[in-house]
From TrEMBL:
A family per Pfam: HNH
Keyword Hydrolase in record: yes
InterPro entries noted in UniProt: HNH (IPR002711), HNH_nuc (IPR003615)
Name of the molecule in the record: HNH endonuclease
CDD domains: HNHc (cd00085)
Domain HNH nuclease residue range list: 273-325
GO molecular function, one term: zinc ion binding
Organism from which the protein derives: Corynebacterium curieae
Domain of life: Bacteria
Keywords on record: Endonuclease, Hydrolase, Nuclease
Amino acid sequence: MDTYYVVNDPKDPIAVRATENRKQDYLFWNEVKPGLEDDFDISCHTLATRTGLSERRTRDITMALYRLAELPLTMALQETYYFLDFSRLITIDAVLSKLGDIPTETLERIDQELARYLTPTRPGQVLPSNTNLRRKLNGLIAVENPNTEEAEETDARNDSYFTYPSFGGKAGLAVEFDEATLIAIDEHVCKAAEEHNLSKAEALAKMLLGEIESRAKVVLHMYRAHDLEAAPAFIRGFGWISPDTADNLHPTQTRNMDLAKEMESESYVTPPLIGAYVEGRDGVCRWPGCNRPAETCQKDHRIDHSKGGKTAGSNLASLCQHHHNIKTDGGAFYIMDPHTGDIVWLFDDGRWEYDEPQGPLAPKNKNWALTVGQAIAARRAAAKERNDS
Ligand SMILES: [Zn+2]
């Protein structure tokens, strides 16, 4: 079976031309990018004036290409398919830059998983959106344990609180905390925003200025493998966190998602446990490329409840209001693999698009968490042995 992304569909003239454009763009920038020995600022400046792009864009493209060269497996994929445009390549570099100087073995692990994530496994698969690619990369770096001594030193040197001017009379605030603190703050802000019907930024400002209080009880929903020693965990609405942070969050209630996967209900309304499984499997709305978090989506009965469709993970998919409407209006429909949650969307004009679930319970992510957990457990054991001897 030939596997390919829709952006590379060999039978689609638009996809073929777009691929050729991406390829030429990629080859062009690879050829003209400043060499490592060149004066970087001047080279980017002259490239910018000659191409009409901004200096910033020219710098971002250049950095993205050097970053890709550090990821040989991902680069090999790109140079086979030419499927990644510069906005996605820049995203890869931007997220990995957060790690600073990355040890070779960390880069190798990230490259392996990124290449696996980006390899199409079905014909007509939809390329991950920039947002979902960023989420994936954030997950990859979240589970990398930096050397803590080094990290503390960096924290002391760089103030992680700063303000910056923005456009239209606005200004920004950037702060950094340890994961656990940020998760708690984020939950409080989200709750307060919901409670007072405000945007999150407004809620944060009013909380800090003492104008409102969040009295809501904060509940964290964490997905984590229970049978694995150093498993990373996924916090709903936040993303992946490291095993160390997860170890320090003590659940007040646990539910078994393996059982939830198999549960069925007579009711039309999805019971919370089945809903938690569907959200954990899907991650986001199942319309290819949509980024709406699954917890804000409706649970669509693939086969109508009135036609005997079960209220169970195997017959429910997360769809945001907008894409639920498209399905209800009959412009597209889907079939779903009940075991993996994979979905094929079928359109009126005969085209199809293939969508994989993105959540922590999706088979690919469960496998990844297993691999990461094993690697981290092995690293912990090796460190302990060094300390003991
Ligand atoms: Zn959607």
